[in-house]
Amino acid sequence: MSYQDDPNCYVGSFxxxxxxxxxxxxxxxxxxxxxxxxxxxxxxxxxxxxxxxSIQKVVFHKMSPNETLFLESTNQIVKDDINNSSxxxxxxxxxxxxxxxxxxxxxSDTIFGGCGALVFVIDAQDDYQDxxxxxxxxxxxxxRVNSNIKFEVFIHKVDGLNDDYKMExxxxxxxxATDDLAEAGLHHVHLSFHxxxxxxxxxxxAFSKVVQKLIPQLPTLENLLNILISNSGIEKAFLFDxxxxxxxxxxxxxxxxxSYELCCDMIxxxxxxxxxxxxxxxxxxxxxxxxxxxxxxxxxxxxxxLREVNKFLALVCILxxxxxxxxxxxxxxxxxxxxxITQVFELRNKCQSSGTDRxxxxxxxxxxxxxxxxxxxxxxxxxxxxx
Length: 387
Hints:
The chain is built from ten helices and eleven strands. The protein is 40% helix and 19% strand. The protein is globular and about 60 Å long.
């Protein structure tokens, strides 16, 4: 039997049981669950059939893009809890396109009050005037409730458009959207625009940038990656959440889309091979563990190197083959990097625990004195040094 016949595997993706956890759906949008959970939320909004549910299924539930053609239109609020042992901890709320903000049952304060980011999806292959009107209404309503929301606009379904039309559509949508907000008196509201499609890696790259804005530890993670690559001869490094293939951090050098796609494909290969040949202990739920690593040498002299950081995080590096000759130094530096990541986890958990205790006692939240210094000292003490 070939691996294509294995019901536990997807070809070119992940095994079905390699996931965050159970899927939860709340048809009535119970606001009490919103208030009880303090994880940041990402709201998916847009007109009907704009592709919101397809994005959610492809990125976080490993659905094949072709399968999304059979998804029914969303008629109720769908809650998706993204929660694992890594820095990726948030909720996604998929809203039906016909939602009415002026409906008395729509609690704007509760919905937008705890929102970290609002992703508005616009179908680039359709007349988007109605979508822009809905965008202006949505941003205005949300900003008045919570001025800290990160507003992201996905110009979606661009796979069927040529490059010139893509850029023209992005410029037009950007210009009209900002003008609409200016007329509403929201000159200072910033919108981030992304060209996306579920048929390539653009949707993962766009969601990576959205999630990164919700990670308070992002500067520390970037600093650790900068230290690692500068001492190891690495050209580019990504810290991936292997379930969703979004990168939660990268070094300060610009991100090349082709390099990101290579790293995503490498994660697919590692998980697929692990699904077929890996051995799972009784205490483990998947085959990606602290022994997981991979090395791929390309015919252009480039090396892709993957190492497991923790249960759901992987470090993927791109470097020249001649720089990989000192693999022992790279591996030692990686161990220092992984130890530093562990310290950041511990500090984050400590801060979250103290914040929970303060909320229970009624004390206002505050960042503990020295928290930033402690985080920075993590990177200093764990700075990899070349032998």
